[in-house]
Design brief:
single chain, 239 residues, Penicillin binding protein transpeptidase fold, three-stranded mixed beta sheet, 3 strands, 3% strand
Length: 239
Amino acid sequence: MNDIGNRRPRRWLRRLLWLPVIAVLFTVAQVLVLRFVDPPFSAFMAIRQIEAWTDGDDDVRVYYQWRDLDRIATSLPVAVIAAEDQNFARHRGFDLDAIEKARDHNARGGSVRGASTISQQTAKNLFLWGGRSWLRKGLEGWYTLLIELLWPKTRILEVYVNIAEFGDGIYGAQAAARRHFGKDAAQLSPNESARLAAVLPSPRRYSASRPGPYVQRRAQWIERNARQIGGPAYVEALD
């Protein structure tokens, strides 16, 4: 009887020890599948819809329609890289130079500057939630490593421009192009792409279709940077 009683705790202990292995295998499978399968939604989209239901806000809905990268005007991924992550082609998920510069800037006070790469933002938007907890940051780092290991750079960029929020409930290039400019993502002009990239830090605060002074200035800066990094040739070189 005692033998049976002693075996039960050991059996549960062995099962608990398998949990981290199962969690790792699950996340690897998630990322590997989404290399080939276009995500039907992201974690951020699901959270936004749940927030609307919880708040009883029937006017809020999620707009999302996938477009392959070759059906999106090249000016948009170029603008996003110019605005968010100019070392995208060179880093392996984490831009250490940008992190160091952000740390120095934040130590001096004033506005807080982030240093998240497109890979990190893709991991966060696709799989996780907002916030600054250590758990969320740790998971973001893990998913970023998996994405960089299992996906080519063009796939990371393709997923990001399809799930990034470009307005309240407006996710991805196609929904943004339709809602803001009344056209398909393939028809976006360089200026329109720059305005979409300009609102990414706060897409529910700023508007790409009705840009205020901040968005206009930032869009001009993004257009200059897009030309400096090589324009469409930058994206073509990722293949």
